[in-house]
From TrEMBL:
It comes from Sulfurimonas paralvinellae. SUPFAM superfamilies: Cytochrome c. This is Cytochrome C. One of its GO terms (molecular function) is electron transfer activity. InterPro entries: Cyt_c-like_dom_sf.
Length: 111
């Protein structure tokens, strides 16, 4: 009985942690919100390693938002980075950026 309970808990925990963020949702966010300024998307994502993206996406992407809010070039995106929508979707964007980082070995498909 203990083994069955342990297996059930392990499967539940695994499914909860993997279902938290979706790469395809992050890609959608990147296409809608980031390609306006970062036109060379694939090269831009693979410009940095996972460690760098992880650092920028800490605390629901707050460091990345601050970076954009300080830049006059990113003025078009200020409204988005101040919104609750950004904080909500940042986990998906983080997953996408981590998946296709320089040291990941993955290349995003053309959609």
């Amino acid at each position: 009985m203990v083994k069955i309970l342990f297996i059930f808990l392990a499967v539940t925990i695994f499914s909860l942690t993997t279902a938290d963020a979706a790469i395809y949702k992050g890609q959608r966010v990147f296409i809608k919100k980031c390609l306006k300024c970062h036109k060379d998307g694939q090269n831009f994502i693979s410009k940095y390693k996972r460690k760098h993206w992880k650092k920028l996406m800490k605390h629901k992407g707050k460091p990345l938002a601050e970076l954009h809010l300080k830049s006059q070039k990113a003025k078009k995106s200020w409204k988005y980075f101040k919104s609750k929508r950004y904080a909500k979707k940042s986990k998906h964007l983080k997953q996408f950026l981590m998946e296709y980082a320089k040291d990941s070995g993955n290349v995003p498909a053309c959609n």
